[in-house]
Amino acid sequence: MRMLLVKLSSLGDVVHALPAVTDAARAHPGLDVHWAVEEAYVPIPALHPAVTRVIPVALRRWRRQWRGAGAELRASVRRLRESEYDVVLDAQGLIKSAIVARLARGARAGFAYDSARDRVAAAAYGRRVSVDKRLHAIDRQRALFAAALGYGQPSAALDYGVRRDRGGTAGLVLLHGTTWHNKLWPEHFWSEIARRALGLGERVTLPWGSDEERRRAQRIVASAPGAVIATPLDLSGIIELLAGSAAAVSVDSGLGHLAAALGVPTLALYGPTDATLTGCRGNRVVNMTSDFACAPCLQRRCGYRGERVRLDAAPIEPPCFSRITPDQVWRRLRESVWST
Q: Is residue 164 part of a domain?
């Protein structure tokens, strides 16, 4: 069987599809998976042995730089149509992913109207699968694949299908960056964790992916002398960094999910978002969730209007992270995640 998987973005969403690919490969020995994905995330599908071809698309860049994009767009369409597929599976359920699926040759499947993130996307599929939106994102992917490819609901343990040698000297990696401002753990909390790890003689590394994240890393390192700011890295470089790390502490971000998929002992911090829906999963992965009154709010902007929350005289923004303190994180890290 040859399948085109359409799972374009974002980083965490792409990682979430990997266990379902493993399920499908077990159910259909010899399964040949081609994967259409945003160009920035090409290294992720390439990690899985069942994926024999990765087809990059650049929808995000084309929207920003539409002049002169015609030739690239035509080339991408040709790549999508080069093969005839037994099934074209849109595992994202957005209008943009449905358009990509429509361009390919083969029977199309995807989320039903009641399950797709964009309801209208379901009109593009010949086979529509209803999946409970209350399930974790990984479980939704596994259920979708099973129904679309005609095998029973998977009961096997979670397996991202990623096989990487461990090694390197990254030590404890602090994944402090995220796309939502109110998912950011307070900077002085990061500094405290870095100082404690350094006090044990451990290496502490802070990667970054934007100017804002680089400046934050510089401030954390300034208050935790001895910590290291990673050199500029593309996604392949980040994969190598994480694969060689001893452990990671992460906010709710795609890199946290990537660390978990790579088998890195990971502690993930959830304030405004819901770990039952998008928590990191894997061996030696722990999710810490806030029990603040309005958490999880699932909002990009903090709507708290109560009295300002402080810890040791320092204001805590967003206030839900006042319930996930450095003391608590360090204790869970040492007891449940990281064996130094």
A: no
- Is 90 in contact with 131 (CB distance < 8 Å)? no
Cα–Cα distance measured from residue 327 to residue 203, given in angstroms and rounded to the nearest whole number:
19
pLDDT at 165 over 80: no
pTM: 0.94
Residues 28 and 94 in one domain: yes
Whole-Å CA distances, 136 to 13, 143, 223, 277, 312: 11, 11, 37, 4, 36
pLDDT in tens, 242-254: 999 999 999 999 9
Q: What is the pLDDT of residue 66?
A: 67
Structure tokens at 32: 């040949």
Asked if pLDDT for residue 147 goes beyond 70, the answer is: yes
Q: Which residue has the tokens 């449940």?
A: 336
Residues 108 and 223 in one domain: no
**Is the pLDDT score of 168 beyond 70?**
no
Residue 8 above 90 pLDDT? Answer: yes
In this structure, are 193 and 243 located in the same domain? Answer: yes
> Is residue 163 a part of any domain in this protein?
no
SS (H, E, C) the chain: CEEEEECCCCHHHHHHCHHHHHHHHHHCCCCEEEEEEEHHHCCCHHHCCCEEEEEEECHHHHHHCCCCCHHHHHHHHHHHHCCEEEEEEECCCCHHHHHHHHHCEEEEEEECCCCCCCHHHHHHCCEEECCCCCCCHHHHHHHHHHHHHCCCCCCCCCCCCCCCCCCCCCEEEEECCCCCHHHCCCHHHHHHHHHHHHHCCCCEEECCCCHHHHHHHHHHHHHCECEEECCCCCHHHHHHHHHCEEEEEEECCHHHHHHHHCCCCEEEEECCCCHHHHCCCCCCEEEEECCCCCCCCCCCCCCCCCCCCEECCEECCCHHHHHCCHHHHHHHHHHHHCCC
Domain containing 323: what range?
171-337
The domain that holds 192 is classified in CATH as 3.40.50.2000
Q: Are residues 323 and 182 in the same domain?
A: yes
On whether residue 161 sits in a domain, the answer given is no
